Amino acid sequence: MTIANIMLVDDEVPFVEAMTRRLTKRDLEIHAAYSGEEALQKLSKTNTIEVVILDIKMPGMDGIEALKQIKTRFPLVEVIMLTGHATVETGIEGMKQGAFDYLMKPCDINDLVAKVEQAARKKRGHEEKIIQARLKEITSRRT
Question: Among 43, 93, 111, 122, which is least packed, fewest CB within 10 Å?
Fold first, then answer.
């Protein structure tokens, strides 16, 4: 079984390919997207993505705008911002917009995997609370 089902979003194709190989070896299921727009399209077609690893600096829709869209349209999906150009301000902005965390490139692969595991656990916890609330609502109607 995989640790988590993630989407890796970065406009640098060699980076995505290298990270996909490295993360797949660590029992993560990877979906690749090369722009914010592509990430949103793929997220709308599948409900299995738990965590998005999202580059901040991309042409077209940048990572902060993609983050806003993801959190609006898919609020339970957790997002880890990843950038080689991070500033404290960018990190704070990402966190204000709902990012789970952010890491600098190049990041330690073990740190990234640990963050993905934490983010996936958080998403699953929220899903479980929603299921329990729905069950409680259904069972309370019967009494």
Answer: 111
